[in-house]
Specification:
Layout lengths: L2 H23 L5 H19 L2 H10 L4 H52 L2 H10 L3
Helix pairs in contact: 1-2, 3-4
Length: 132
């Protein structure tokens, strides 16, 4: 692994960690989500400080150069993260749909209960004005 790539990995790791800490401090990122990125930065630091590790893994993976292995590794990790984010987003969309349906049912029940409390003459007049 070249010295330039090692320096680039260290700089990227440090910048990622600084950005994460700022986002956590300003409550724009949950700690659970930041664990992945902190682990990601730590792996990049290990790769840059101990170049024998990615060299060995590059040989196992069958890539021609260590740099290609590192790029492949980073892309793989990001795809895995994107998959988990998609799963989490689908779960949140389902929860939102359920909440909207529950709110609509509660609103409908509240309106029906409100109509029952009205005097009969006013209720009939009100029903004529409201479109169905």
């Amino acid at each position: 692994m070249t010295v330039t790539l090692r320096i680039l990995l260290i700089v990227a790791s440090v910048l990622t960690t600084i950005l994460l800490m700022r986002k956590i401090r300003h409550s724009k990122l949950q700690i659970e989500d930041s664990i992945f990125w902190i682990g990601f930065a730590c792996i990049l630091i290990v790769f840059s400080l101990f170049p024998a590790v990615p060299d060995f893994l590059s040989g196992l993976a069958g890539t021609y150069t260590t740099a290609n292995f590192i790029y492949l590794f980073i892309i793989f990790l990001l795809i895995v993260k994107m998959f988990y984010m998609s799963v989490k987003m689908s779960q949140m969309e389902t929860k939102i749909k359920d909440l909207v349906q529950e709110i609509a049912l509660d609103e409908n029940a509240r309106r029906a209960h409100k109509k029952e409390d009205m005097p009969a003459a006013y209720r009939d007049e009100k029903e004529e004005k409201e479109p169905v």
